[in-house]
Amino acid sequence: MVANVKDKAVIVGIGNTKFSKESGVSELSLAVQAVKAAIDDAGLKPSDIDGMATFTMDTNDEIEVARALGVGELTFYGRSHYGGGAATSCLHQATMAVATGMAETVVVYRALNGRSGHRFSGGVAGDITTADAIHWGWYMPYGLLTPASWVAMFTERWMHNTGVTKDALFEVAHSTRVYGANNPAAFFYGRSFDRAEYDAARTIASPLQLFDCCQESDGGSAVIVTTPERARDLKQPGVSVRGVAQCAADNQEQMTSFYREEFAGIPEMERAAENVYAMSGLTVDDIDAAVIYDAFSPIVLWQLEAWGFCGNGESGDFVLDGALRTDGRLPTNTHGGQLSEAYIHGVNGIVEATRLVRGTSVNQPAKDVNHALVTSGVGIPTGGAILGKMN
Amino acid sequence: MSDHKTLGCAEISVGDKLPSLDIDITTGLVVCGALATRDFEPVHHDKTSAVATGLPDVFMNILTSQGLMTRFATDWSGPEAVVKSLDLRLGAPNVPGMVMTMTGAVTAVDPGTGVVEVEVLGENNIWGMHMQGSVELALPKEA
Amino acid sequence: MTANELNAFEDEINAFVGREVCPPTPAKDDVNTAMIRQWTEIIGDTNPAYTNEAWAAKSTRGKSIAPPAMMYVWGQEGFAVTTGRPADAQADLVSLFNKHGYTGVLGTNVKQEYFKEVSPNDNVVMEMVIDNISERKTTGRGPGYFFETLSTFTNQHGEKIGTQRFKVLKFIPQEQPAAPAAEDTLQVPTRIASPRGHDNKWWWDACDAGKVLIQRCKSCQTLRHPPRPMCGECQSMEWDSIESTLDGEVLSHTELHHPKIPGYQYPLVCAVIRLGEGTNIVSNVVGCDPSAVHIGMQVKGKVEQVDEKTMLPQFYPASSGIRS
């Protein structure tokens, strides 16, 4: 059964803070700056917000954000779990709240000092105090305790099974950075990048090298979601949520689903894609551009397959044909992705997908973008959404 | 340095960084490094003696650290470089199980003599600074 | 110590300044390729100026050289030091310090200058003097004195090839508090252990005892790993376990390069291994070069003590013939 929330929620405002390696301010400051930017973009007032959705990993309590901004009353707050898997799950929460009338205008936010504060590359050891710790305990003693190491384990097997080579990983790393080099807000702005630099960079966890990995970042991103009725009165052209879904598949672990009969795959994203297509009434052919969660280069390839842009094992050829480039079949991660804009846990991706539909990306493709795909992190419970122009 | 190229002084500027180098501190490196430098002090090969001095295990001798520091510099410069001096301040011991990361940058270039000074830091991942200092290298003027 | 006693002590130590520790002494062995090769292998130095005769012959120098950092090596006394060093001025100075409570010792700086390179068949002659002794200093380690030895190196022709200044702090160790602060206890970190709760403690306890167990549903006999409180097949909460033979096959692997986590020894390979019993486990593959690990590789596990505190299964290539 697929819930019918198609076009019942509309993105009307987007905001990012400056992205940096050291923000010099609190995560709460980043959160309220991002939310305020999104509110301003929408032409709303803080008091128009009555709902909030963020990550369980976010340190900024809804009520603190509300108090700092002067939002006033909240009638909805919901959090989504599983790291970057929560990116579009927050949009999913906001959409459900708006569609059901639990709230009228919900802000999705994520803000972190991901470089100057807690760093993901430091691994899971120090500060996990929940029942999660039991799970990580099956990996930590062996040294498998960073996101790169978990993704590397999937990548090695997937490359072995499919014959996809590092040429394809490089194409993802490179096409994304070409976009980033042209985005003034991106870490990679103004930089050049080539295969020699990619190959020469240090190995993080084989087969992943430095440029297969995103950059830890300080920053915040936010999007405002409201009803179609309200959206029509606002400043920006509405970007409608055509379909959104989340999924945890059978035998799922967080980043370590090594116990499936064949673990080199992301069945949770296949199922989420199926549901988004069913909800939206759209097919893969309707998608003109995408923001595909790219904490690491190979995970973009798996998602292209899960969403049906190509067959299983064919994503290498698909990207090597130039599909992700600005004149390709599916211009992807046009902001520079998390590989080279900033790693804001995928919420900067929702911002960019909104821009693509509005037609305001710094790397806007020449063709019409009627529908853009945006996805969450994989290897974990995940999801995605298709955004389109509000009717 | 498989091509055995040597940098020329003219190619080098103050601030140039050397490629960083990770050294796995193993019992083998500590004990064999002491042997190769004919340093038979028991603290470098006998854990019981090392523990008696308050350390958890055998620790790297100074001559091995000196060797690693010159290697780090000449790996970068190439083999025609003549090492003129090696000046190091000693910090925390290197003990098996640690990883020492060596980083360095050029701090002075004298185009007249071809001598460059490189500042080097060797930090282990447990106790921090193991050695810090400088290496002077005389380089050909052109590569 | 009264002011007078201190003055007397300082007069006594200052009398050592300028005293010879060792007269010019030729090294027992000439500079030679065997010792150079051993040094370069262990230091990991591939500089062809040291060991590649063909390259060196064509180089600016026209011949191979000894690594400059070996300058002090040639005159080392050798294995005899394991049973003590002969009496010399430095030993006398040290024992004088020790007698007055300055028992702590810490090498703080070493500086070598090189004036002329040496090559195989040269002989390095070393002499050493006590060059200077500082005023009494208050240091982080305790009150003490720095003394510096100056070694001068010449070759068989009497040409000066280099010097070495070595600075040592002799100090009165500060009284340690009864329970030293965490940063004062010198401990090498161990691997990050799994927390132990109701659902997994039994597994790790068995691991400590040298066994890898696999949880088994008592009702439908399905094996499961990692352990969970309920069987996903039949929802039974009754379970026991079987011991794995640790015969396995690598399903995937990764070599961890960066960041290096304190407590782990690198190179470090992690792998997903399918055990003969049918369940998968994550562990390390050891006992072979990391590049030899491959998908489909047959491995054999063994529970081992990997550091002071940690017992873990470790998997070796099955071809190595290891027994669990």
Short recap of the structure:
The complex is a heterotrimer of chains A (391), B (143) and C (324). Chain A has 391 residues and is of the alpha/beta class.
Structure overview:
- The complex is a heterotrimer of chains A (about 400), B (about 140) and C (about 325).
- Chain A is an alpha/beta fold and about 400 residues long.
- Chain A is built from 13 helices and eleven strands.
- Chain A has helices at about 25-40, 60-70, 85-100, 130-135, 145-160, 165-180, 195-200, 230, 265-280, 295-305, 315-320, 335-340, 345-360; strands at about 10-15, 50-55, 75-80, 105-115, 205, 210, 220-225, 240-245, 290, 370-375, 380-390.
- In chain A, strand 5 and strand 6 form a beta hairpin.
- In chain A, helix 6 (about 165-180) crosses helix 10.
- Chain A starts with 9 loop residues before the first strand and ends with a strand.
- Chain B has about 140 residues and is α+β, with helices and mostly antiparallel strands.
- Chain B has a domain at about 10-25 and about 60-140: Roll (Thiol Ester Dehydrase, Chain A), CATH 3.10.129.
- A five-stranded antiparallel sheet of chain B has the order 1-3-4-5-2, covered by helices on one side.
- The longest helix of chain B has 16 residues, at about 60-75.
- The two termini of chain B are about 15 Å apart.
- Chain C folds into three domains: about 5-30 and about 65-170, Hotdog Thioesterase (Thiol Ester Dehydrase, Chain A); about 210-245; about 245-325, OB fold (Dihydrolipoamide Acetyltransferase, E2P) (Beta Barrel).
- The termini of chain C are far apart.
- The chains are: A alpha/beta (about 400), B alpha+beta (about 140), C alpha+beta (about 325).
- The interface between B and C is large, with 53 and 50 residues.
Keyword list:
heterotrimer, A: 391 residues, alpha/beta, Peroxisomal Thiolase, Chain A, domain 1, 9-stranded mixed sheet, two-stranded antiparallel ribbon, globular, C: 324 residues, alpha+beta, Thiol Ester Dehydrase, Chain A, OB fold (Dihydrolipoamide Acetyltransferase, E2P), 3 domains, elongated
Q: How does the major sheet of chain B shape up?
A: 5 strands, antiparallel
Low-confidence stretches of chain B: none
Content-based structural category of chain C: alpha+beta
| Rg of chain C computed from alpha carbons, rounded to a whole number of angstroms | 30 Å
Whole-number total of structural domains of chain C: 3
Beta-strand percentage range of chain C: 25-35%
End-to-end Cα distance of chain B: 14 Å
Major sheet summary line of chain C:
6 strands, antiparallel
Mean pLDDT of chain B: 93
Could you tell me the radius of gyration of chain B in angstroms? Answer: 16 Å
Order the strands across the largest sheet of chain B as they lie in space: 1-3-4-5-2
CATH level 4 superfamily of the domain at 9-25 and 62-138 in chain B: Hotdog Thioesterase
CATH topology of the domain at 9-25 and 62-138 in chain B: Thiol Ester Dehydrase, Chain A
